[in-house]
Design goal:
Hypothetical Cytosolic Protein, Chain: A; 91 residues; alpha+beta; two-stranded antiparallel ribbon; 3 helices; three-stranded antiparallel β-sheet
Length: 91
């Protein structure tokens, strides 16, 4: 029997490939970063491990968002993203 391949996406932080359901989708819109909790937002998407502020920190350090989306994140923006990730992780 052939095993069905689960599509995998790479986390911006740890760069591990995981199933989509283990990841948060991040999209950028007009220079801002949003967490796409429902997976329905338009735009360019990237992924980050769910419940992992560590991966988020890594992504910040590596400037992954800047490189992936061509945005500039200031401190406030990073804090906002941090809060959103935390909020979703606590669901
Ligand atoms: Zn990760």
């Amino acid at each position: 029997m052939k095993k069905r391949e689960v599509p995998k996406r790479m986390c911006l932080g740890c760069t591990e490939s995981k199933e989509k359901k283990a990841l948060l989708r991040i999209v950028s819109h007009e220079g801002k970063i949003f967490i796409d909790a429902e997976g329905k937002m338009d735009g360019r998407g990237a992924y980050l491990c769910k419940d992992s502020l560590e991966c988020l920190e890594k992504a910040f350090k590596k400037r992954s968002f800047e490189r992936t989306f061509g945005v500039t994140l200031d401190k406030d923006e990073k804090e906002r993203i941090c809060l959103e990730v935390r909020k979703l992780g606590n669901k």
